[in-house]
Amino acid sequence: MDMGTLAVLEVLAGNGVLFVEDPSTGFGGEPPDMGDGPVVVSSPGHLVLVVRHAVEGLTSVRVVTESADVSLPVAYYEGEFTSAHGELAVRDVGNWNRITVHVGAISFRLRIFADALDEPSRLEIVVPGL
């Protein structure tokens, strides 16, 4: 991994969604109604992202610190994220594919970049540096 990269996940996203969440509380339950937007904020520590569906191929997720070079062109999401223990997890619906990173902050500005606004196949999630 290059400098600033904390974790990488390549996943076939069943249902075409990924969860970004506080791993200490988890999401629990079925994905909410996604409506027309690419991101649903179900609480300050739980996001649901629309991504490429598994039948279309892999979705690649790279979690990076603020000091890393972000290469993806689309500002997909920006907002406050809260985690009880300063951690962030990215996972698929079934929780078969998951990465968890320690970010050190309980509440922080989370930024997500993508290769496309509609059903992206690549995401870069920017978290504070340790």
Description:
About 0% of the residues lie in helices and about 50% in strands. With about 130 residues, it is mainly beta. Strands 1-5-10-9-6 form a 5-stranded mixed β-sheet, with no helix packed on it. It has a 5-stranded antiparallel β-sheet with strand order 3-4-2-7-8, with no helix packed on it. The model has no long low-confidence stretch (mean pLDDT about 85).
Keywords, please?
single chain, 130 residues, mainly beta, five-stranded mixed sheet, five-stranded antiparallel sheet, globular
Measured by DSSP, the beta-strand proportion falls in over 45%
Large-scale geometry: globular
SSE ordering: EEEEEEEEEE
Low-confidence stretches: none
Number of strands: 10
Strand ordering within the main sheet: 1-5-10-9-6
| Helical run tally | 0
Distance between the terminal alpha carbons, to the nearest Å? Answer: 17 Å
Largest sheet, strands/sense/barrel: 5 strands, mixed
The percentage helix is: under 10%
Rg of Cα set: 13 Å
Report the mean per-residue pLDDT as an integer: 87
What structural category characterises the helix and strand content? mainly beta
